[in-house]
Amino acid sequence: MSILITLNTKEDYHVHCNFNNHSAPDLTIRNVIKQCKEIGLQTLALTEHVRKGSDWIPNYLKDIESCLDTHNCMRIITGFEAKILIDGSIDCPKEYSKNYFLIASFHTVYNDKQVWIEALNKAIENPDVNVIGHIAPEPTFTLEKSEVNALASLIVKNKKIVELNAKYHRPPREWIQIFKKQGVKFHLGSDAHSLHDIGRFEKISDLISLVDDASPISTTED
Ligand SMILES: [Zn+2]
Ligand SMILES: [Zn+2]
Predict the structure, then answer these.
(1) What is the pLDDT of residues 72-119, one digit of tens each?
(2) Residues with CB under 5 A from ligand 2 (ion)
(3) Rounded to two decimals, what is the model's pTM?
(4) 135 CA from centroid of ligand 1 (Å)
(5) DSSP for the chain?
(6) Would residue 168 count as lying in a domain?
(7) 2 C-alpha to center of ligand 1: Å?
(8) Residue 153 is part of which domain span?
(9) Of 61, 148, 208, 209, whose Cβ has the fewest other Cβ atoms within 10 Å?
(10) How many domains does the chain have?
């Protein structure tokens, strides 16, 4: 059975705002939503970097809430991006991880393939996690094909989504091909840290074409 897969470039599932300390200062939630409307996005997921000790979360949620009513023509998802810790747990307070959209990503290099795989497997099995963010091997190792296959099965079994990340141009092409063959679901994330980067996926048009059966260049490369 084959199902045609189409990626919607009008949906951005990974956008930051200025609640972190390294985004553009004008990346307020209000401005993010305004920008999304201007470029005609249909879905926006706000996924600010969270830590277990983040004290700004109530303000962040309040801020999003106050912007929602006037922009109901677009689907707005409230969420977080949390780091996968070395033991595979997620760096987000439980009360938020279980109630909001959650991207789990590696933000630390662990320099050990086994540690990395075990942490990732735990994150994939974590019911709070919705998406595996900008996934790729660390500079010191690669995965064997069989390991990528095992990863793909676990992702499918646990119904996680793999994002095609525009900021880091990930996952690697070979992984995408294996994931796709195994039936992994994908969506797009700009990982925008500035207004300009929201909803911009030109840089990963090659990755999109690997996944998207409707893409005009999907059959030219393999
Ligand atoms: Zn990240
Ligand atoms: Zn991010």
Answers:
(1) 689 999 999 999 999 999 999 999 999 999 999 999 999 999 999 999
(2) 81, 191
(3) 0.94
(4) 9
(5) --------TTEEEEE--TTSSSS-TT--HHHHHHHHHHTT-SEEEEEEEE-TT-S-HHHHHHHHHHHHGGGTTSEEEEEEEEEBPTTS-BSS-HHHHTTSEEEEE--S----HHHHHHHHHHHHH-TT--EE-S----TT----HHHHHHHHHHHHHTTPEEEEETTTTBS-HHHHHHHHHHT-EEEEE--BSSGGGTT--GGGHHHHHHH-TTSTTTTT--
(6) yes
(7) 32
(8) 11-211
(9) 61
(10) 1
